[in-house]
Amino acid sequence: MFRSKTSTRLNGLLGVGLTLGTADALAAWTLNLSPGVTPISRAVFDLHTLLMWVCVVIAIGVFGVMFWSIFHHRKSRGAVPAKFTHSTIVEVVWTTIPFLILVGTAIPATKAIILMEETGEAADMTIKVTGYQWKWKYEYLDEDISFFSNLAATSRDVRNGGDPRGVKNYLLEVDNELVVPVNKRIRFLITADDVLHSWWIPAFGMKRDAIPGFMNEMWASIDTPGTYRGQCAELCGKDHGYMPIVVVAKSEVEYRQWVAGKQGAARAEQAAAGKTWNKAELLARGEQVYNTSCAACHQANGAGLPGVFPAITGSAVAIGPQDAHLDIVMNGKKGTAMQAFAAQLSDTDIAAVVSYQRNALGNSVGDSVQPSDVKAKRR
Amino acid sequence: MNTASNHDAHGPKSGIMRWITTTNHKDIGNMYLIVALAMFFVGGAMAMVIRAELFQPGLQLVNPHFFNQMTTLHALIMVFGAVMPAFVGFANWQVPLMIGAPDMALPRLNNWSFWLLPFAAVMLVSTLFMEGGAPAAGWTMYPPLVQQTGDAFPFLIFTVHLLGMSSILGAINIIVTIVNMRAPGMTLLKMPMFVWTWLITAFLLIAVMPVFAGAVTMLLTDQYFGTSFFNTAGGGDPVLFQHLFWFFGHPEVYIMILPSFGVISQVIPTFARKPLFGYASMVYATAAIAFLSFIVWAHHMFTVGMPISGQLYFMYATVLIAVPTGVKVFNWLATMWRGSMTFETPMLFALGVVVMFTFGGFTGVMMGTAPTDVQYHDSYFIVAHFHYTLVSGAVFSVFCGAYYWLPKWTGYMYDEKLGKLHFWLTAISFNVLFFPQHFLGLAGMPRRIPDYALQFADWNMVSSIGGFAFGLAQLIFLWVVIKAVRGGEPASDEVWEGADGLEWTLSSPPPYHSFNEAPKVS
Questions:
Q1: Chain A with chain B: Cβ pairs closer than 8 A
Q2: B55 phi-psi bin (left φ>0, alpha ψ -120 to 50, beta other)
Q3: Which of B305, B378, B458 sits opposite A234 (nearest CB)?
Q4: Which CATH number do you get for residue A108?
Q5: Given A95, A236, A242, which is nearest B323 (Cβ)?
Q6: Residue A33: closest CA among chain B residues belongs to which residue?
Q7: Which of A62, A87, A116 is the last residue of a domain?
């Protein structure tokens, strides 16, 4: 989205020296939509340009007349007020002309809507996108690949108090990118698990709300390889600003390599769940999982936010019986923001993070949980 | 107590009881305006927090949860606590004066509808101090997110109920007054435009406030009584709330903008020294806008996943609003055309509305067009759009009306130099504040985020600087009002050279019971 072929020119034009020079940060002082990289985004960009110029022309006409009148028909220039109060002809004209202009712009707008909604056409592949507080889950329905995409650690580490200026793609970088092939018709199925979200990549010219219990559709066919960034667009709570979307469009060959790598990694993960983990391994892995999946609410130090999100440190659950602790992590708590992580994390991750919560963050229960314990609890 | 003659015939009671028990339209109008001004500064202070946090990337001042509380309360307070009460205050003062009535038709109801308001406002602000903080799900209160609100949740719902009651009772009073208490000879099509716009606005209020109250009550029962109106797991539909909310919410924006059209339609003829052009078409255009406002609500929801036919219908109906709105703008232009204009502060604000509201109308057409809206939706582009319509449309009109009528209400002229300074600082800082937000939205910055990617930093800093200047400029207004209330050059009855209407036949300030004998209108 944030491509900036024009940015250097605009910087010169505006004569302002505050811009950010790096090739990725880009587009400071950006003024306009990007034309994007899909048929939809180009249609939308053209329509946007048309509407803008129609508005500019009307504005020049209307405000021109107004300022001419303000300048000439003022008392200080000796203007004497006229007596007219209405004119049927004029009123009919200025009702009809705007109507005709609107009909004129409605025609390309209708075509663009029809283009956007061509979701029924045969898609080359389908990706299901699920919004969570505050991350995205991507499932490649044809490839048996599924993973979560969280805000990258580089952004997360500075978000509370650090200086973001040195961070590459601050708030627009994720740990697992959505990788897709170029020039394929991709169907996105969009839904949510908890509250409303909205999946938006400006360069694709589309956003669709992610609604729990409902499946929305959109499509894209990306014609230029590259990395495209976007953000959740529908307010979804505290960390609404911290769930970016990154799509990497690759050639078909590179995409197939990526798919093979991803599937291999999934098999390795399954194998890891079968072994017995020692406590140090569990805690090391648990810390990572805690920081991506728990710290947004319960805070990195486990203190929580009083009245909103409970603390982990000293919590009755985290230092109480292991079974109840696993239960709340895996099944969530109804009526609160606490999600059911059984559906989101692997056996190993759950075992690690529960072990971590019981033996770190100021807690020292002493026990640990194995992936096999988690597996046994899954029904 | 002796009977009928004891109706405060010779003036108000003294002390605090005057204000608590008053049934006088001017006292109540004053109280509405004072509450509106106070809430304008409370909501404005929240906007300052928002702009201060967004001054540069990174989190400096507040945490994201508090930031969301600020955006939510800022909107609720400005809409329900500042703009709407300000226009109700105008209606209380001006409707009886303009139609030649002694007071409002239902004075006790008037007292009650006012006194609901400060309690609702205090309740809303008090949620900031509750466990879990104030509501943080946006003023649109979309479920399921709003159901993650802490202890503030029921208070949010009851605030809406109280505000809704207040608005409905006020609206009933305005309709009854206008229908029954016009001076002999004042037919409907001789009423001043301000009265017309309020008559139509009052019908909008009565039609949509109950829908809003119903929708939030459904949220309440979903939360506490096990219903599943909006809960998918129980067979409900979260999008249903959006339909209900915007069935209220879209007319609501016209509830804020129609009275402002009314104010402008009084002020421009006065300072152009020429009657309003196309009075009848103004009335019909107002009615047309009000009617259309009921049937376009889903243009706030183009991204929820609607069938093509739904998107097309709501797009066509929405952009159609540009036609009657255009008629209004053209009529104001034609009123100015070959007039004899002077540019006192009310006229400056009126011209500010015509220019900047029209600009908001342009972006409105761009967003009413469904395919482009998909890009603009929930980005800073829409934040810019609705502030152009609601600040430079509604709030500027409130300033316009306040400057226009202050001399009539207080009996003293306000300080013209300070007034003009207020206008120019406000108008310039407003554009520095909101114009760059169009660019931010087009560059891809979502709304309602406390921190942003680095490429948005420059325009955000410009916008914040404009925001601080805008905030400071409003202190001038406060000072002008205080100064005018305390004294100054006495105002004549007519006040403005080109003023026309019954209110200008009374003394400045007018007697406690405006018209004891109905004036004749020819």
A1: 311
A2: alpha
A3: B378
A4: 1.10.287
A5: A95
A6: B442
A7: A116
Helix axes B322-336, A88-116, angle to 10 degrees: 150
CB atoms within 10 A of CB B233: 10
CA A225 from chain centre, in angstroms, equals 20
Question: Which domains, from first to last, does chain B contain?
Answer: 22-505 (1.20.210.10)
- B58 Cβ partners below 8 Å, 6+ apart? A158, A159, A161, A162, A163, A164, A165, B451
CA count, 13 A, side-chain hemisphere, A300: 9
**Among B124, B116, B120, B123, which Cα is nearest to B69's?**
B124
Helices (runs of H) and strands (runs of E) counted in chain B: 17, 0
- Compute the distance between CA of residue B406 and CA of residue B375 in angstroms, rounded to an integer: 44
- Give me B308's structure tokens: 């093509």
Q: Does A276 touch chain B (CB under 8 A)?
A: no
Which region holds residue B2: left if phi is over 0, alpha if psi is between -120 and 50, else beta?
A: beta
Q: Is B328 a catalytic residue?
A: yes
Amino acid at B219: L
CB contact under 8 A, A208 and B303: yes
Report the alpha-carbon distance of residue B203 to residue B208 in Å, rounded. 9
Q: Which position has the token pair 């740990």?
A: A175
CA distance B61 to B51: 11
Q: Is the dihedral of CA B77, B83, B89, B92 positive or negative?
A: negative
8 Å CB contact of B371 and A305: no
Partner A contacted by B457 (CB < 8 A): yes
**Complex ipTM tops 0.90:** yes
Residue A336 has pLDDT above 90, yes or no: no
Residues of chain B found within 8 Å of residue A47, distances taken between Cβ atoms: 369, 371-372
Contact B57 A109 (CB under 8 A): no
Co-location of A219 and A136 in the same domain? yes
B369 touches chain A (CB under 8 A): yes
- Concatenating the DSSP letter of every residue in A288-311 gives HHHHHHTHHHH-TTS--BTTTB--
Q: How far is B456 from chain A (nearest CA, A)?
A: 6
Higher pLDDT, A358 or B8: A358
| Below-50 pLDDT ranges, chain B | 1-6
User: What's the total number of domains in chain A?
Assistant: 3
Q: Tens digit of pLDDT for each residue in A60-80?
A: 999 999 999 999 999 999 888
Interface contact flag, B238 A242, Cβ < 8 Å: no
Q: Kindly tell me the sign of the dihedral angle through the C-alpha atoms of B410, B416, B417, B422.
A: positive
Instruction: From residue B421, give the alpha-carbon distance in Å to each of A57, A71, A103, B355.
Output: 31, 20, 43, 19
A255 interfacial to chain B (CB closer than 8 Å): no
Integer Cα distance of A127 and A217 in angstroms: 10
Among candidate residues B25, B74, B385, B408, the one labeled active-site is B74
Interface of B with A in 409-428 (CB under 8 A): none
Confidence (pLDDT) at B9:
55
Q: Are residues A202 and A302 in the same domain?
A: no
* Contact A75/B at CB under 8 A: yes
Residue A131 lies in a domain: yes
Q: Residue B254 catalytic?
A: yes
Cβ <8 Å between B375 and A202:
yes
Q: Is B180 exposed, middle or buried (0-12, 13-18, 19+ CB in 10 A)?
A: exposed
Per residue in B236-266, pLDDT tens? 999 999 999 999 999 999 999 999 999 999 9
Q: Widest CA span of chain B, in angstroms? A: 73
Kindly state whether residues A283 and A364 are assigned to the same domain: yes
Residue range(s) defining the domain that contains residue A84: 39-116
